[in-house]
Structures are given as structure tokens and as C-alpha cells.
Amino acid sequence: GRPDVREVRIALTADKVRRRIIAVGSGKGGVGKSTVAANLAVALARAGRKVGLVDADIYGPSQPRLLGSEGVKPQAHDSKMIPVQNRWGVPMLSMGQLIEADKAIAWRGPMAAGALSQLVDANWGAIDTLVVDLPPGTGDVQLTMLQKHKPDGAVIVSTPQDLALIDARRAMQLFEVGQVPIVGMVENMAGYVCPHCNEVSDPFGLGGTEAAAADLGVPFLGRIPLDIAIREASDAGTPPAAGDGPQARAFADLAVRIGA
Ligand code: ADP
Question: Ligand 1 center to residue 3 CA distance, Å?
């Protein structure tokens, strides 16, 4: 059966000594999984956690861009990688740093698995939380994650769109089979506020993720609106969670709900 989600969240909140791993997954690409992972990590750090971030998305490693450390190569010590620091206080290692830029990513499973282990088993120092931005879907990297670096919990990001939700359910099933508790689902890109007239519209629908979470009996963690400020700050390498706008509050709320 499914592990008790309440127990997991209490454990995530109470255990400040042992390192916990939170995997951030999605069914589809482009739903904002990397954006949520980056800003969740920054929000947790702002809440006083010692957080590290692994970018395991082999298909589109975007954390160096999101955290403003593009082109910075990690050093190694005693054959362990040393995470790249940034001004957000979230040391990070990315698949993108192991792959030469612009090289087509046609890695076989074992290579991707080996790369993941290098990142997770790096020289992280005294962190209490490792956030792992997984590739979308259910491939080799996810399997290695489950078999070798079992996460303490999984956060699933989806848009409210039916198509995205169908795939999100599949991604969630993989964690359940692997006995990884689902911390909850995040609805991204709901509620677009028009910068001109302030009218709120919902290009991908609204509430679909919350309904799916209720249906599946997993917690709903909150909603991040489709907001041009999030896209612009992300592209500029200044995570919106590090700012002082409503976007930062939305991510801070999320961090509290997963056990900041
Ligand atoms: P994924 O990791 O699921 O592939 P990304 O996090 O890379 O998705 O996001 C895809 C694109 O959508 C990026 O350009 C990102 O800046 C943008 N984006 C993500 N979430 C939001 C949001 N809430 N509001 C505006 N843009 C967003």
C-alpha cells in the first residue's frame, strides 16, 4: 500500500539532521517542473534550510540558466564533484555541466544513470535537503533515482490541462511502485493575469491539478500562476522566489507546505 503521507511530511519537517531527498517530477516537459524545482530550493533556503539542487534533466538541463551560473564548471576533489555556488545560497550540480553544450543528448541508460550518481553523491557538505529536478516522464534516470538514491518524497508538477494530468498520473505511479511517498501536486500556469487589463484568464484551465490530487488521494500543494514576471526573472537567472513580489510568496507558501 501507499506510505502514509502525513508521516512523511512530519518526517520532512522534523528531521533536520539527516539529508532528505525531494524529487521533483512531471509527466510532460514544459509544464514548469524545473522552474518549480529551482524556486522551491531557493524558498527552502530562504526559510533557513541548507539546500542543494541536482539538475537531473538530461533532456533540457536548465538549472545553470535559472540560477544564473551558466558556463561555470564544477571543480572536483578526491574524485567527488564540488557543487557550484550562487548568490541564492543553493549549491547546484547539473547534467548540463557534464555534457558539452550543444551536444545532442543521446545517452544510453547506463551513462545517464552513472551521471546521476555522480551528481547525487557529490561533495554536498552540510545540507539537510537535496532537491532533484528529474527529467519528465518515466525513464532510466527515474529508475536509478528509485533504485540507488531513493527519494524521501516526490513533488509532482502539472498544468491543469487534461493531457498533462494524464501523464502526471503515470509519473506518480512510478514513485508509488517504488514506495516513494508523494508529498503532493503543484498546479503551475493556472490563472494568467493580463498585464494590461488585469483580467485573469486560464489558458490551460484552472483547478484540474487540485481535482486530480483529490481524486488520487494525494495532497494539493498549491498553485503558481502563469506570470510573465516568472518567465522574465527565470530567463535572467534571478529566481523569482528570491525576490519580494507575490511570486516569491507563492513559492514560500509551497516550501512551507512541503515542510520548510
Ligand atoms: P519543464 O522543466 O517542465 O520542462 P520549465 O520549468 O523549463 O519546464 O518551464 C518551461 C518554460 O515555461 C520556461 O520558459 C519557463 O520560464 C516558463 N514558465 C514556467 N512556469 C511559469 C509560470 N508559472 N509563469 C510563466 N512562465 C513559466
Answer: 30
Q: Is residue 72 part of a domain?
A: no
Test site for ligand 1: of 67, 187, 204, 234, most ligand atoms within 8 A of the Cβ: 234
In a domain, 81, yes or no: no
Q: Is the CB of 158 under 6 A from ligand 1?
A: no
65 pocket-lining for ligand 1 (C-beta < 6 Å) = no
> From atom 12 of ligand 1, which residue's Cα is the shortest distance away?
32
Cα 25 to averaged position of ligand 1 atoms, centre (Å): 13
Per-residue pLDDT of the chain (260 residues; tens, 9 = 90+): 455 555 555 555 554 457 899 999 999 899 999 999 999 999 999 999 999 999 999 888 999 999 999 989 999 888 899 999 999 999 999 998 887 655 656 667 778 888 999 999 999 999 999 999 999 988 889 999 999 999 999 999 999 887 778 888 989 999 999 999 999 999 999 888 777 887 888 877 778 899 999 989 999 999 999 999 999 999 999 999 999 999 999 999 999 999 87
ipTM of the complex: 0.99
Between the CA of 35 and the centroid of ligand 1 the distance, in Å, is: 6
Indicate the number of domains in the chain.
1
Burial of 7 (0-12, 13-18, 19+ CB in 10 A): exposed
Q: Sign of the C-alpha dihedral, residues 156, 235, 84, 135?
A: positive
What is the number of residues in the chain? 260
The CATH number linked to 38 is 3.40.50.300
The predicted model scores a pTM of 0.91
* The three three-digit cell numbers of residue 146, written as one number: 528509485
Classify residue 157 as exposed, middle or buried by CB count within 10 Å of its CB (0-12, 13-18, 19+): buried
Does residue 68 fall inside a structural domain? Answer: no
The domain containing residue 215 runs over which residues? 5-52+107-113+126-258
